[in-house]
Amino acid sequence: MKHGTGKTQTPLPDLLQRFELPKGIFPKNALNYEFNEANGKLVVLLPFICEVGYRDSSIVRFAQRVTAVLEKGKLTNIEGMKTKAYMMWMKVTSVVMDTPGGKKVTYITGSVNNKRPIEAYVVMRDGIEADVF
């Protein structure tokens, strides 16, 4: 819901699920966000730079401010998110569901697409503070 309308803001996990994405994409620490329904612009604010380890052994690092365009089944134009692939941190540009209600989440980086099981992202996890993004 929009800020300034006097309405209570939908919790971030509920917003993600409304757009058919797993609620655990962002860490539990990401409680504040702004969402513009008109253009899909999402800004997620975290208290500190952090990383999250997921059940499938993947690791994602988040800046204090993550921006993206939120559409049904995908986050695109992401700024502020990295994942570890082949022992290197790579910038995540999109997070996409394989199909609506699908079983795989794809993390798209410049040269690598990591398909991951949705089960790894159904539970919100705490972000562990990191020194640098």
Compact overview of the structure:
This protein has 133 residues and is mainly β.
Could you list some keywords that capture this structure?
mainly beta, 133 residues, 9 strands, globular, at5g01610, DUF538 DOMAIN, 9-stranded antiparallel beta sheet
Whole-number average pLDDT?
90
Total domains? 1
Q: How many β-strands, per DSSP?
A: 9
- CATH class equals Mainly Beta
| Pattern of helices and strands | HEEEEEEEEE
Span from first to last CA?
29 Å
User: Which structural category fits the helices and strands?
Assistant: mainly beta
Q: Rg, please? A: 14 Å
Number of helices, counting only DSSP H or I runs of 4 residues or more = 1
Helix content: under 10%
Beta-strand fraction estimate: over 45%
Describe this structure as you would to a colleague.
This protein is mainly β. It has one domain: Roll (at5g01610, DUF538 DOMAIN). It contains one helix and nine strands. The protein has one helix at residues 12-18; strands spanning 32-35, 41-45, 50-53, 59-71, 74-85, 88-97, 104-109, 113-117, 128-129. Strands 1, 2, 3, 4, 5, 6, 7, 8 and 9 form a nine-stranded antiparallel β-sheet that branches. It is globular and about 40 Å long. The N and C termini lie far apart (29 Å).
